[in-house]
Structures are given as structure tokens and as C-alpha cells.
């Protein structure tokens, strides 16, 4: 949806391929990824969800 479109436009505007935004070993410090996240959040699409994390155990997922 909207997030995919924002990502595509951001990639074209910044001459970067989307996968290059996340291939870094240190994602938190990636300035372009932070900028992209801010654009997606500003559109009303949240990028974080309560209790949703790849670091949580999946034992209780249904």
C-alpha cells in the first residue's frame, strides 16, 4: 500500500535500491532508513506495533 509507494519514491529520489536501506549491519544508525520511517509514519501508517517484535518468542503465536 502506501508504505510501498513511499519506499519506491524515496528510493528513486535518493538513488538507492530499497534493499540497500536494510542490508547494513547497523540499521539503527542508518540515516536513510530513519528518514524513510519518518515519511511512512507521517503518512499515518505506523511502523511499530505494540507487542510486535522479531525479538519476542513465537511460542504463543497462533
Describe this structure in words.
With 62 residues, the chain is an all-alpha fold. The chain is 47% helix and 0% strand. It has helices at residues 2-13, 18-22, 31-42. The longest helix is centred in the N-terminal third of the chain and has 12 residues, at 2-13. It starts with a helix and ends in a 20-residue tail after the last helix. It comes from Microcystis sp. K3-9. This is Putative Uma1 protein.
How do the strands and helices of this protein lay out in sequence?
Blueprint: H1 2-13, H2 18-22, H3 31-42
Summary of the model, kept short:
The chain is mainly α and 62 residues long.
Overall 3D form: globular
What's the alpha carbon Rg, rounded to whole Å?
A: 14 Å
By oligomeric state, this entry counts as: single chain
The end-to-end distance, rounded to whole angstroms, is: 25 Å
Give the SSE order as H and E letters. HHH
Major beta-sheet overview: none
What percentage of residues falls in helices of 4 or more residues?
40-55%
The overall strand count is: 0
> Low-confidence stretches at least 5 residues in length (pLDDT < 50)?
none
